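User: Just a sanity check before I run the rest of the batch. Below are the structure tokens for the first item. I only need the designed sequence back.
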């Protein structure tokens, strides 16, 4: 069986893709002088959150994923990022190729929430490989890619933020159920609001006006009327 090893050497945000896309640079190495006609790979990318430390602000942003920091010993489990297919062309010995990973800024997706909560440093990734190798110098052999092939990579957090900024500059992204979206559209039409930002701000302002004021400090509540002084008879 051909001995294959995989190494990730870098990543970049694709500025020309129709949607948010990361391009990982992948190096594939085969046994010395082994002719590989093609590799049909399945690549699974997984976040390994326990492999890095977190600042207080980052920990607060990850609370909805992993709970309070005191529980992270049991809750800081791997998070699925992506699963993509890759066809590697013919090579002998070694080749470098691009692994294109479509992404999303949907904050309902755990991986998106994780990356967005990080401020700097690297996001620890584990790449798992499987598939089929077509090899042979004087013939044609078909053999599986061993299931234990993997590569660790620290993806710079700045690359993720760069990718998001390319497609959603200065904006966030929110997905709503159809009935909530219809109700929001009806509200916008009734009030002749020019944009979705104006619509959301109008709702926030209305909620702030309707919200009762917070209770005062203990002992500083409502002032009671003074008791009437008794007069001597």
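Assistant: Here's the designed sequence for the first item:
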């Amino acid at each position: 069986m051909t001995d294959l090893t995989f190494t990730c050497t870098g990543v970049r945000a694709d500025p020309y893709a129709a949607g948010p896309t990361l391009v990982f640079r992948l190096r594939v190495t085969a046994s010395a002088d082994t002719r590989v006609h093609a590799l049909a790979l399945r690549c699974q990318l997984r976040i390994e959150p326990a492999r890095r430390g977190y600042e207080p602000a980052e920990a607060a942003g990850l609370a909805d994923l992993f709970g309070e920091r005191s529980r992270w010993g049991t809750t800081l489990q791997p998070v699925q990022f992506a699963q993509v297919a890759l066809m590697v062309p013919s090579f002998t010995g070694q080749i470098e190729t691009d692994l294109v990973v479509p992404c999303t800024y949907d904050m309902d997706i755990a991986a998106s929430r994780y990356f967005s909560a990080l401020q700097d440093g690297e996001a620890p990734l584990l790449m798992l490989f499987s598939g089929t190798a077509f090899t042979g110098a004087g013939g044609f052999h078909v053999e599986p890619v061993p299931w234990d092939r993997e590569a660790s990579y620290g993806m710079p957090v700045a690359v993720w933020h760069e990718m998001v900024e390319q497609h959603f500059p200065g904006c966030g992204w929110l997905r709503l159920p159809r009935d909530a979206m219809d109700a929001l559209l009806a509200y916008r039409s009734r009030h002749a609001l020019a944009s979705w930002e104006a619509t959301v701000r109008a709702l926030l302002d209305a909620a702030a006006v309707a919200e009762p004021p917070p209770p005062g400090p203990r002992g500083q509540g409502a002032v009671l009327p003074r008791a009437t002084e008794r007069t001597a008879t």
